[in-house]
Amino acid sequence: MTSITPRSEYPRPDFTRNEWLNLNGPWNFDFDDHNRGLREEWYLNHHFSNKIIVPYAFQSKLSGIQTNEFHDVVWYERCFTIPEEWQEKKIHLHFGAVDYRATVWINGRFVCAHEGGHTSFYADITDALISGENRVVVRAEDSSTDLEQPRGKQYWEVDSGGIFYTRTTGIWQTVWLEPVSPSYLDRVKLTPNIDTGEVSIEYIVQNRKGKQELEIEITSKGQIVANDKVQVHLVQRKNKHIVSLEDFANGEGKLWSPETPHLYHVEFRLKEDDVLLDKVQSYIGMRKISIQDGKIELNNKPYYMKLVLDQGYYPDGLLTAPTDEDIKRDIVLTKEMGFNGVRKHQKVEEPRYLYWADQLGLLVWGEMANSHTFTDRSVKRMASEWQEAIERDYNHPSIVAWVPLNESWGVPRLKRDPRQAHHLVSMYSLTKSIDSSRLVISNDGWEHTISDILTIHDYEGEKEVLTERYSALENVLKYTPADRSLYVNGFQYHNEPIMVTEFGGIAYQKSDWQGWGYTAASNADDFIRRYYHVVSALLESPLVQGFCYTQFTDIEQEINGLLTYDRQAKVDLNIIRTINEGKKLTFTE
Fold this sequence. Notes:
By secondary structure, the protein is α/β, with parallel strands linked by helices. Helices cover 17% and strands 31% of the residues. The protein has nine helices and 32 strands. It has an eight-stranded parallel sheet. It has a six-stranded antiparallel sheet with strand order 3-2-4-10-7-8, with no helix packed on it. Strands 1-12-5-9 form a four-stranded antiparallel sheet, with no helix packed on it. Helix 2 (324-336) packs across helix 3 and helix 8 (524-539) packs parallel to helix 9 (573-580).
């Protein structure tokens, strides 16, 4: 076990408080394969026989356990002591993510339960605390074979195979404690408007009282551009305030983009009779994503999206990045290859990734981890967790599109079951009802209902075929990827922008393990030639407004990455960048 706290950075960088206590590191741990823990009241007393390093799932090497065996119920325990200076505060216990269903006790007392393997939750544990040492126990239940559960790429067989990978069970993101005043700022929703130079701020104050006010200070490179003070409404739970930025009024406002990722610092101070109750640090990027006359625009100008498919897996941590530096490095490598964005595939990515995308400048398509069958229960689970994901990640300027479903996963009978088409429409509308500021794709790849972009998955490897297919709209609309129609019966094309959001997938073995891809290269020169042919065909199309190449890295049995699984370049990254920039290359056949 290690004495260094893993993942020691603050886990929620868009809503930061200075005081907090990281609970990552060694925890006591046990499998509960016979599901005896509840009956035997392990939350009251139990001798744990194993240890685990949180926040890494037991399937990962970094957890200290590493096994692919099915263990659907696991238990965690650790002790902690509340700092003396927190004694008059409320204490919140936060979980970045626990896959899939979590139940939490403090000193044998139930404090919360949560369902959803990718989203955050917290509990007010103040009343359950005792003086001195306290004990937290977590039970996580994650069915290895439940296809109604939103699981994304986590395979329901023991060993990974095909396009599916090793599962993640239990705690897989940071656990931390945070003190707050009895009245505190619970949530903010920041919406930029570059056309007016304003920021819409919706906020919730818990346990609000009379004569409370919220101070809002926005700065740009240390210079104050907004400084407002608003009264907290005593009756309304959610309040809204519009802030004007002085530099935009002066014509000097700075926009956020991958090329110029400027961020405004925001500080919230909740006060009562000039007494500071809460202080939260955040930030905002002034950017706009929209469609105008059938064209994708970023900040009111046409913008070609060059994305790479990123599954967010790591050899030693699986869904959990080993370190914060690993996350940052992924984004740096992505940009070095000439991509301006990523499609995070079948994973609701952790906030630290989104933070670095905001800071360094990278577009992100946020995607829900799908279930793999259609039932009333799967619909309820998908809709519930997806709402939590959008709410958690709303403030990140890097996110420009939401993808609730991929390739008809979880809706396999769209042609015969009208309920499944209704589900696609409802997920599109649900997403728009929470966030109307971003683009939404109802079903990425094919069988669209209502979508802001017509997205197509196309693993054709010959340039001539791709060039012909994307030379005319008629050719595009008659294409049936994987023998699927581009639109569900009753829906049709309405001048949506066209993007090819999965293509390539060229296998090239540059590591010890073998695997597969959609086509295969025999050496580095062959790989570069094949990559150039598929990318240049799309860049030369008069119709295609962006692409997403498959994929960023090799993963387990897939060797179709631009990088190996451990992030080593397969070919010179400058060549990849040159191709992505649309420069002409010639080859000797």
